[in-house]
Every structure is written in structure tokens, then in C-alpha cells.
Amino acid sequence: MLPVIAAETRVADLVSAARKAGADAADALYVGDASTQVQVRLARLEDVSRAEGEEIGLRVFVGQRSATVSSSDLSAAALAALVERAVAMAREAPEDQWAGLAPAEMLATGALVAVDGDDGGEASPAELRAQALAAEDAARAVAGITNSEGAGASAGRATVALATSTGFARGYATSSYGVSATVIGGEGGAMQRDYAYHSARHRADLEDAADIGRRAGERTVARLNPGKVASGRMHVVFDPRVGSSMIGHLIGAITGSAIARRTSFLLDAEGTQLFAPGITIRDDPHRPRGPRSRPFDGEGLATAPSDIIADGVLTGWLMDSASARQLGRQPTGHASRGTGGAPGVSTTNIYLESGALSVDDLLAETGNGLYVTELIGHGVNPVTGDYSRGASGFLIENGVITRPVAEFTIAGNLREMFGALTPASDLVFRRGVDVPTLRIEGMTVAGA
Hints:
Blueprint: H1 4-20, E1 25-41, E2 44-62, E3 65-71, H2 76-92, H3 125-140, E4 145-164, E5 169-185, E6 192-200, H4 209-222, E7 232-238, H5 240-243, H6 245-253, H7 256-261, E8 281-283, E9 306-310, E10 313-314, H8 321-327, E11 335-336, E12 344-345, E13 350-352, H9 359-366, E14 369-376, E15 386-397, E16 400-413, H10 414-419, E17 421-423, E18 433-434, E19 438-446
Parallel strand pairs: 7-14, 13-18
Antiparallel strand pairs: 1-2, 1-4, 2-3, 4-5, 5-6, 7-19, 8-9, 8-13, 9-10, 11-12, 14-15, 15-16, 16-19, 17-19
């Protein structure tokens, strides 16, 4: 894995070589990473793995024709062959009137925003093993836990560098640490499983392994002996770890490519009141130590915090350069890519801001309903917004979470669900997508 400065030089040199070989424009992306993972089960070491790799991808344009070629061989001879092959492929590719580099005037310039994504540290296999064992031990110590699917700990570092023929050549490094545990409670056909995990850019921010394991055990035991749910319409409250999926459905519907293809249920929603007044959904690529923080996007554009939903109103589409051209607009700094293809669109650290009600008050106001902790399947139609997913969780009775329930389906239409959504005040930043506890009123529930 190359240091950042060396990686910047490598991609800049590759772009220069592509131009000399006949490309009208080009960009190159380097990704190098190294990670160590340790898995344990029933207090015994199961696996120690180390992965190291680096790859470089070159995208070239000849007129309105383009091609992308990638390689994990970074030798001079291999890169020379890569350049020759990419230019030859581009000359034979079909024309695409929307393809091209990002506008040069929008590229990130000057000092990059410091997102503090790399702590410069390492963790030895012995240290990771100790963390994994601590997580599993704590999970298995919870009364009612009968078996374990294992626990793991990991540590890694990565370097990313991007260069374009319009003069951009920048990079950054990240570190990552994680601990997880999955355990089983009960016996025979009554067994239940659940998990807990935490990941962080800085090791100092990683939650204590024993706390992670204990939470996995407690979640599992709470699910034992689930009952059934009667069918009908009722309020559904989503635990934050599953409520974040609502944001994913929103983002998928407002990407420039979905709008340009007219395959989104939100085609006519730009500038409209999609959520209740007061609701804000923000994307923050500059959050210090954020899991998806980045100083520039996959095309070299400067990133900036933005409100995707402001006071309940959908502010616009998320676009890379190609989809922006199709829509007659400017890219929004949300491009993402790998080494093997053209850019797409993704958000960074996106979150739905806390509401005014505490979780207890939200539940009390709910009265009777369902508290969902797990969603099953992918029953979402991105064209119509129709939503239907299997779920499990707990009953809410008289404003209190009570007994576990399973094997039911919740259904609705995402546009209506967004409008009926109420957030609690318990937002915590832990993931790339964070939400507080969410309530959606009047969903259709199919149970026993």
C-alpha cells in the first residue's frame, strides 16, 4: 500500500501517460488497503486473516467514447500495457454524449478539509484476539445464551488517490477498527439469535468489546419465546439500527441516474413537502472521524455538508457528472466509484436529525403498536414506492415495549410513510447512516 503522496504521483503519472497515448481526457483512481481480522467461537480461535492489496483503475476518453481498465499489478510494464489497452478499447466503444470528467472549475482546490480519518495506529493479532474473546465472553455470560456464532475484531488502513487530466491529483488515508458478536439463545426450534457491533475510524473511539458482547447477548435473550401479531393497521416504531433503511430507500430514489431513467417513485417530488415540517436529513462528508468522511468525491469535486431534506422539503437530486449532464444541471459532489467502472452516486455520513420527543414520550404517545428490531427481505418497489417487508420485534402496549413477536409483515407506500414519520430525540452518531428511533403511523401489518 502506497503512502498518500506516492499514490498521488502514481495516478498523476498514469493520467499523463494516457494523454500521451492519445486519450483526449482521463482519470485514474488508486485504492490500497491492508486489514487484519480475527474470529473466535466458543472461546477458541477460529481464524486469523491478513489481506493486503492495491489496485489502480484508468478511465480514458476518446471523443465521446470511453473505457475503463483496472489492474492489481502496478509495475511499470503492467501500467504501460494498461494505458495502451484502455485507449484501444475507448476507440472501439460506443459513443456516450453524457460521459466525461467533472467540470474543471468545480474540482477541489487548495487545502483539503481535514476529516481526521486516520489515527496512524495498528492493532496486533493478539490485541484483536483479546477484543474478540472479551466480546464473546460477555455475550455468553448473559443468562439464557446457549450457543455462539462467534465474535470478531478487525483493524485496517487504506489509501485513496485520484487524478484527472484537468489538473486534479489528491489523496487521503483512512483507518478502521471493528468488533462484533453474534450469539444464540434458547433450544431447538425455539432458538433465537441476535448481534451487536461497532466500528470506528480511530481505535480510541471504538466501544468497549465487553459492552458490545453484552448488548448482543441481551438482545438475543429479549427475543426468546416470541408471540404472534394480529393483522390490521397500527403504528410501527423502528429501532435506529433498522430505521436507517428508510434513508437508504430515499437516497435510491433521488439519485440523478434514477431520475434520468425515470425509474423513481419521487420523480415529481423535488421541492415538495415530502416529510413533516421540522424534519431535516443532512449529509456531512466533513464530520471529524466520520465512517464515510471524505474531502473530495469520486470525481475530484469538493464535498460540503448539505441538507437533503430541509424542514420536510426535498431539496433536489444527488448527481454525478454524467447524470447531471442528462438532467441539464451541475454535479452535487456525491460521486463515488471503484477502480473498475464509471462513477455512481452515494452519500457520506447521512443522518436524520433528532425530534422533540424522548423515546419514552414517543412510545407513550403511540399507545399500542409494534417496535421493530429486524427487517427481512427486500420487498421495495423503487418505481412505485410500494413497501412490504418481513419483520420481528416487540409489542408496544399502553405505551410500553412488552413481549417479543415475530413472523409478521409490515407494508405501506414509502411516500406516505415518509409523510407519516416522527423522529424521537435519541440520535447517536455510530454509522454511515444514523437515525433516531422513528415512528410511522398507520402501517398495514399482516400477522397470524
